[in-house]
Amino acid sequence: MKSRGKGISLKLPSSESGFSMLEVIVAILTITAFLTGTLQLMAFTALYKVRATRQTQANFWIQEDFESVKALASTLDVSSSPDYVSSDVCTDGYATALRRELTETPLSEITIPTEQLVVVEIPGQETPDEFKKFVGKNYSLYRTFNITNQANHPHRLRIDYRVEATDETPKDYPNQEDVIAESSVEVIPDASFKCR
C-alpha cells in the first residue's frame, strides 16, 4: 500500500488571492491624482506666500514714507531752512509749501512736480537707489500729489502712493499686476493751524 502524502496546493483560497491587476492600476491612478493635486496646491501656496510677502513689505514701505512726511509736515514753518515756505503761506497754503519741500523745488520755480519717485537712502552708499528688493524683485515707490481740490483746502495735501515693479520683466506670473500696493493719505502741516 502506498501512502499518499498530502500534496502542496499551489492555489490559495480566493479570500487570500491578492490584488487583481485592475485594483493595482486604480490604486496607482488614485495615488498619482492625489500627489498631482497636492503638488499643485503647494505651488499655488508658495506663489501666494511670495505675493503676500511682497505686498506686506510694500505697504510697510508706504507707511514708513508717510511717517517721514508727517514728521516733515510737523516741523514745517515760515522759518524752515532751506526756504521752501513763502511769507504769504497762510494765503497760498501750507500744502504747497510741503509739496515744494518734498520735491525740493525752490520758491524761484513756479511749477512744482505733481509726481515724485521716492529714492531709498542706504547707509554707507553715496547714491541712493530708486528701488527696493522684495523677495528677489525690484519695486519703486511713487508719490502723486493730488492737487485738484487744493484751492478749496490750501493747507491739506493729498498724497497717492503706489509701489510698482521696476524689473525688466515686471510680470513674473501672468496673473500678477505691476502695482502691488496703493494708498491715499492726507497731510495737514501743524503750522497751518496758526493761520487765521
UniProtKB/TrEMBL annotation:
Lineage: Bacteria, Bacillati, Cyanobacteriota, Cyanophyceae, Oscillatoriophycideae
Name of the protein described by the UniProt record: Type 4 pilin-like protein
Keywords associated with the record: Membrane, Transmembrane, Transmembrane helix
Domain of life from the UniProt record: Bacteria
Transmembrane region(s): 21-48
Organism field: Microcystis aeruginosa (strain PCC 7806)
